[in-house]
Every structure is written in structure tokens, then in C-alpha cells.
Amino acid sequence: GQQVMQIPQYQHVQEGEDFTTYCNSSTTLSNIQWYKQRPGGHPVFLIQLVKSGEVKKQKRLTFQFGEAKKNSSLHITATQTTDVGTYFCAGRGAGGFKTIFGAGTRLFVKA
Amino acid sequence: NAGVTQTPKFRVLKTGQSMTLLCAQDMNHEYMYWYRQDPGMGLRLIHYSVGEGTTAKGEVPDGYNVSRLKKQNFLLGLESAAPSQTSVYFCASRETGAEESYTFGSGTRLTVV
Questions:
Q1: What is the Cα–Cα distance from B16 to B19, expressed in whole angstroms?
Q2: Which of A33, A98, A102 has the CB atom closest to B42's CB atom?
Q3: What residues have CB less than 8 Å from A82, skipping those under 6 apart?
């Protein structure tokens, strides 16, 4: 079945450093979504990518969807303490109904 | 507009006890989901519903039952709780379009002792 792998599992950065998390699917995706979960909170939708090679930006966050639509990345420039939390990708298989969530990357930011 | 509301927020059960987790959404969404979240495991789908009166199994359905008698409510039941069901449970809903995002509730932290 469809699997969505996310790496790294966790990352510690110094405030101001950049951070990237990667998401890889075993099958071609029709779209990919990214969510952020603050410690003790619930996942909150950030963005969705649909097109092959698509790049979207939200302030310091840059999201990319691979040309083959099997991988995606989230890059945060100059992390801040407010960026702490777990970032999940969620992919829907092409022609499929279910969305599969990655295990998430937990980001720790040291001030 | 409350979004997705889960009750209770916290609960401690003894092994063998039963309980029902309640999820209510006021966005008129067709699809509703129950996930459990365990450390390092991400979100795992327990059961889902594509409309009032329908339910289907997700990837980890054993030990759980669900009901969707009304469009706005999705109930998750544990008939005989086990320590392995200690987890944080999230309800989510979304509209029917393939590109619709999920709206999550704030979660229920369940401990089974």
C-alpha cells in the first residue's frame, strides 16, 4: 500500500539556522499537504501542493513538490522559537481516496 | 464558528472499561475521521466516514467502533479498553473535494491503566 516517509524524525537547531524536512512517497501523489502541530496542540493545515515541480512560499517557509510528484520538502529560513513543533506531510495517492500522513519531523529551536 | 470539537479532553480508564469519544463539527463537512497519535508513529487512521450513516475501517481499527448517525457527529467507542489504547485521539473533518484540507479537533488524551 501507499507509504509516506518523512525525514528526519527530529532536528535541533539554533535560532537563526535553517531547517528542512523531507517527505517521500512510495507512489505518485495527486497532492501533498503540510501541517504544523505545536507541542500539546493539534495539527493545523499550512499549505497544499498539487502541480509537478510546484513551489510555494509563506514568509520564511518554502514548500516544494517534486517533478515526479513523489516527494516534497519544507524549508524554514532563519528559524525562530515560534517555529517549534512537529511538521507533517500528508499525501493523497493518484486516483486514491485516502490521505496518508507521514510520521512527522519534530523541530526544536534553541534561543 | 467552533470548527471541530472533541470531548472529553482528558480521560483515565481502567483496563476493561468502555467509553465513547465525541466529535462534533459545525462546518457541514461530509467526511470525518478518527486518528490516534503515538510518539514517533505520526497519525494513524482508525475509522472514517464519508457521510451520514456510513463508516469504514482505517489502518488500525481493532478494538474500536464508530457511528455517524448525524452528519455533524462522529463517535468513537472503546468497548473494552486496553493499555495499548493509551494515546492521543484526534478527530478531523473535511469537505469532499480531493484538494480539501483537514480540520482537526484539539484532541482527547486517553490513558488506560
A1: 10
A2: A102
A3: none
Residue to test with chain B: of A5, A51, A101, most B Cβ within 10 A: A101
**Grid coordinates standing for B6?**
472533541
Residues of B in contact with A9 (CB under 8 A): 40
| Number of neighbouring beta carbons within 10 Å of residue B84 | 10
Facing A31 at nearest CB: one of B35, B98, B105: B98
Chain A residues within an 8 Å CB radius of B5: none
Q: Which amino acid is at A111?
A: A
B64 vs B112: CA distance, rounded Å: 14
Q: In angstroms, rounded to a whole number, what is the distance separating the alpha carbons of residues A79 and A59?
A: 11
Full pLDDT tens readout for chain B, 113 residues: 679 999 999 999 999 999 999 999 999 999 999 999 998 778 999 999 999 999 999 989 999 999 999 999 999 999 999 999 999 999 999 988 767 899 999 999 999 99
